[in-house]
Design a protein that fits this description.
The chain is α+β, with helices and mostly antiparallel strands. The chain folds into 2 domains: 6-158 and 325-450, FAD/NAD(P)-binding domain (3-Layer(bba) Sandwich), CATH 3.50.50.60; 164-321, Elongation Factor Tu (Ef-tu), domain 3, CATH 2.40.30. The chain is 30% helix and 16% strand. It has a 6-stranded mixed beta sheet, with helices on one face. α1 packs parallel to α10 and α3 packs across α4. The chain is globular and about 70 Å long.
Length: 456
């Protein structure tokens, strides 16, 4: 039996993952990517699953962090994104961070070599009528033409916010007479040693001068229609955070807790951390320092950081627009557009936020579409799983009137009782572990429905 292909628009993390899941189920898929025919303001190359912001997939702690739990669930689903992320891992304490080029190259190679996946480099303004099963995974930089057509069908205004990108520094330009290697609390991770971050210390006077410079620096000007566009909290520009209060950064990305400066033997007043950005260890990004400062100002202000006085930048920070739909109002529980069910949506355009969250929605959208093509009625992952919690939030759990992008977190999971056999101070933490154990058990049962299910 020859099956019609499923079409996916966008080869970011969600689209790449959806294509892989569909192909692995024996269903042909055509993956449409407009780069390099038409580039975006944020992408630098044409590879699939290119990371345009951080290189971190965040915590890899299965039992005490919802993101780490999601990692484990995705690995059990045969995730391409997690497999290539693990293969391209670089030291990052308790987090999973990747060499962004090696990661994208690995994903692209796997997709290009799959016998049921065809990659087409073209811009799709809107799926033609004869594409009866389509996944729109165009991400935060959806083309204006496609966004306007989606808006016309759904009857909902597109919502936009800005993501800011952090600068990247050449390691050999950092002064290690001032800076030192250490992970907070010496915590190691999937590719780490406990000394995975470069730390640049500040005393109180240096910190206050730095805050003053951030606030006074010349910023990128917005166009008139952009002026009221909000930021996503997880990618807030550092100077916007600084404007919230003099100590905001010292209790945020510049918090010194868990770190001791070996040059002084003391905990600094504040610390700027840099995380490895490539496998060779030659590039480091400044953690939490997304910015909208103009390039010359970035160089001037960031060289005020002790240890970075002579820093050379491989990439300076910048801004890009992010677009998403009001998913609770527009999508059903299988990620189909209610007004046009042949369209499914996956990734950040649905209002999930984060690399792995986007890829997880790609897993679900891909499996929903493949099962539909195979004539099988698939049931969604339970809300007790990380994947199910995300799906529930974007397809109805979130308030349609105030819907905003959100990362996975344990607050999205159904109730579970706190354990009573541990000290009271540990109960909230151990409750997360109970949620994680329940999630993995329920995910394994959910995956059982796919046993033996594949196109003949």
């Amino acid at each position: 039996m020859t099956l019609k292909p499923i079409h996916i628009i966008g080869a970011g993390l969600a689209g790449s993952e959806a294509a892989w899941q569909i192909g692995q189920m024996g269903v042909p898929v055509v993956l449409h990517e407009m780069r390099p025919v038409r580039m975006t303001d944020a992408h630098k190359g044409e590879g699939c699953a290119e990371l345009v912001c951080s290189n971190s997939f965040r915590s890899d702690d299965t039992y005490y962090n919802a993101v780490g739990l999601l990692h484990s669930e995705m690995r059990r689903c045969g995730s391409l994104i997690m497999a290539e992320g693990d293969a391209a891992a670089v030291p990052a304490g308790g987090a999973l961070a990747v060499d962004r080029d090696a990661f994208s190259d690995g994903v692209t190679r796997k997709l290009a070599s799959h016998p049921l996946i065809t990659i087409r480099r073209e811009h799709v303004e809107f799926p033609p009528d004869d594409w009866d099963s389509v996944i729109v995974a165009t991400g935060p930089l959806t083309s204006i033409e496609l966004a306007q057509k989606i808006q016309a069908i759904g009857g909902e205004e597109q919502l936009a916010f800005f993501d800011a990108i952090a600068p990247i520094v050449y390691k050999d330009s950092i002064d290690f007479n001032t800076a030192w290697f250490q992970s907070r609390y010496d915590k190691s991770g999937p590719a780490g040693t406990g000394s995975d971050y470069i730390n640049c210390p500040m005393n109180k006077e240096q910190y206050l001068a730095f805050i003053e410079a951030l606030l006074a620096a010349e910023k990128t000007e917005f166009k008139e229609w952009e002026a009221s566009t909000p930021y996503f909290e997880g990618c807030m520009p550092v100077e916007v955070m600084a404007a919230r209060g003099v100590d905001t950064l010292r209790y945020g990305p510049m918090k010194p807790v868990g770190l001791v400066d070996p040059h002084s033997g003391k905990q600094p007043w504040a610390v700027v951390q840099l995380r490895q950005d490539n496998k060779l260890g030659t590039l480091y990004n400044i953690v939490g320092f997304q910015t909208k400062m103009k390039y010359a100002e970035q160089t001037r202000v960031f060289r005020m950081i002790p240890g970075l006085e002579n820093a050379e930048f491989a990439r300076l920070g910048g801004l890009h627009r992010n677009t998403f739909i009001n998913s609770p109002r527009l999508l059903n529980e299988s990620l189909q557009m209610k007004a046009m069910p042949r369209l499914r949506f996956a990734g950040q355009i649905t209002g999930c936020e984060g690399y792995v969250e986007s890829a997880a929605v790609g897993i679900m959208a891909g499996r929903f579409a493949a099962c539909e093509r195979l004539g099988y009625s698939m049931w969604a992952p339970p809300e007790t799983t990380a994947m199910g919690a995300i799906l529930s939030h974007i397809t109805g759990g979130g308030n349609a009137e105030t819907f905003q992008p959100m990362n996975v977190n344990f607050g999205l999971f159904p109730y579970i009782a706190e354990p009573t056999d541990v000290p009271r101070k540990d109960r909230a933490r151990e409750k997360k572990k109970l949620m994680a154990i329940r999630a993995l058990d329920h995910l394994d049962k959910w995956l059982g429905q796919f046993d033996g299910l594949k196109a003949a």
